Amino acid sequence: MNKKAVILLSGGLDSTTCLALAKEQGSELYALTVNYGQRHIFELEAAKKVALTIGVKKHSVINIDLAQFGGSALTDDIDVPKDRDESDMTDIPVTYVPARNTVLLSMALAWAETLGATDIYIGVNALDYSGYPDCRPEFIESFERTANLATKAGVDGKQFKIHTPLINLTKAEIVKKGMELGVNYGITTSCYDPFHNGDPCGHCDACTLRLKGFKEAGLKDPLNYQV
Fold this sequence. Notes:
Layout lengths: L3 E5 L4 H12 L3 E8 L6 H13 L3 E6 L36 H16 L3 E3 L15 H13 L2 H4 L5 E3 L7 H10 L24 H12 L11
Parallel strand pairs: 1-2, 1-4, 2-3, 4-5
Helix pairs in contact: 1-2, 1-6, 6-7
């Protein structure tokens, strides 16, 4: 019988690849998408398409309104940085959503414990390492310890494992791996500030890194960039 796994799915390039990897490893897939109050709904729509295309046992979409707190260009009325050089993407950017991955992993943990699952997947990767504190290996290791301390399942002897299969990969390596697994990146979205029709802006940090990844992989990004 396949092991149950909860996969955090945003509808972006990384989480979609992570879902495909979990499937390749034979897991029974439970995809969790969180509507945390982000300024656009396109990633929620993308997540639904991805879950349907890759095939999951269940896809749950839950609402947690972090926009009530604000403090991020993704949830508040703050301009998204554009046309930044990659060398400028070392400080924590204004697109950081306070404690987002801590909140998302906590929700994934709650569902996993309910399902009797011990495997949780999150698509953090090396390119987010310097900018986002909640994408670092130290954070993941710390949360895993917390998960095993703070749950009935952990106390009863089950061991939760937070899987981060992309954490040491570049965007190009992630793209290549996804293509090997047959991922349709044309239904994903990564842009922080998309147009009204959902097309990516081509200028924000997320677009810059995604386009660079496809270029270095020797591939063309299937999304329609309005550059």
